[in-house]
Write a structure and sequence with these properties.
mainly alpha
């Protein structure tokens, strides 16, 4: 076999191997091979842990006032490690408050994304697989929702309703449903023409089995990638609404609300808005990086690139 043939067959061999089952160990190896994706996953894990643990241990510290530490500057440890990021206008430690705010911020984003993902996917499956009339009715409803800017619609609805976590999740979920609906319908229209679906129909598979056993697993990686990106968008939307004063209201707290409260002290205490703003930036950036990695890792036709890169890196280290 010549050198050219060997070089040409290597990617094909990797592609063939990558088309197998994607188990947890294999996924972990691919994640460890991408340092940016691994760092993003670690940071997001820390944020999630803060969302679960902080309310159990830091609630009193984050809500208790201490006027002697009012607008305390960061990186001064004479008041304790909790004030390493400084104190707010009421002397509450910013580190504890940012950790506490992670719960509401993640809860709102996760609730909106999960709700819109489930409803949009189910409607998209029906619109793509059922008859033309049913699909057209569903798509026209999606067009009506998409005709309004999502943030503007959220502002109007939240202005009419009392701002709360439930209302905020509901509004943001409704505005994101068309994204998943249109994507799912387009994928279903393409997948239903493939030979394995036609073979299942010939063999007498029922409609629920066709949709949930043969079609949904094929389009699910695309939907999960979109959901990862949408998580960052929803989090930014919540922060924008809280910044405008129609999102979460005190005593509840989110990163967006902390930025809104800290903008009044930008000239005298910049850290009040800087640290929660930095948390928003790092979280959205981590979500975007992890989404880019997932788009390749969950795609059987592109997955071999990650494993080939990992193999080349190990060979170079040796």
């Amino acid at each position: 076999m010549t050198m050219t043939e060997t070089t040409t067959d290597a990617p094909r061999t990797e592609a063939t191997a990558a088309s197998g089952t994607l188990g947890p160990r294999r996924l972990w190896r691919m994640l460890c091979a991408d340092k940016l994706a691994l760092a993003s996953a670690v940071f997001l894990l820390i944020v999630v842990l803060c969302a679960f643990i902080a309310p159990l241990y830091l609630q009193d510290l984050a809500s208790g006032t201490n006027l002697r530490a009012r607008n305390a500057p960061p990186f001064e440890l004479n008041r304790g490690f909790a004030y390493i990021l400084g104190g707010d206008a009421l002397g509450r430690p910013l580190l504890a408050r940012i950790a506490m705010a992670a719960q509401n911020t993640m809860l709102i984003a996760a609730g909106a994304v999960c709700g819109s993902l489930v409803i949009g996917t189910l409607l998209g499956l029906v619109a793509g697989y059922r008859g033309r009339n049913t699909g057209e009715i569903i798509m026209r409803l999606a067009d009506v929702i998409m005709s309004f800017p999502s943030l503007l619609l959220a502002v109007i609805v939240l202005y009419m309703l009392a701002p709360s976590i439930g209302n905020l999740v509901l509004v943001l979920a409704i505005t994101r449903i068309p994204i998943y609906l249109r994507t799912t319908r387009a994928e279903v229209l393409e997948v239903r023409k493939r030979m394995f679906v036609q073979a299942a129909i010939v063999m007498g598979a029922s409609t629920p089995r066709l949709i949930f056993r043969h079609i949904l697993p094929v389009i699910l990686p695309t939907l999960l990638t979109i959901a990862t990106l949408d998580f960052a968008f929803v989090m930014l939307a919540e922060s924008a609404l809280s910044f405008l004063g129609i999102g979460i209201q005190p005593p509840e707290i989110t990163w967006g609300l902390m930025v809104s409260q800290g903008r009044q002290y930008l000239t005298s205490a910049w850290w009040l808005a800087f640290w929660p703003g930095l948390a928003i930036i790092l979280t959205t950036m981590s979500l975007n990086l992890l989404s880019s990695w997932m788009r390749v890792a969950l795609n059987p036709t592109q997955r071999w690139r990650l494993e080939l890169s990992n193999t080349a890196r190990k060979t170079g280290d040796k």
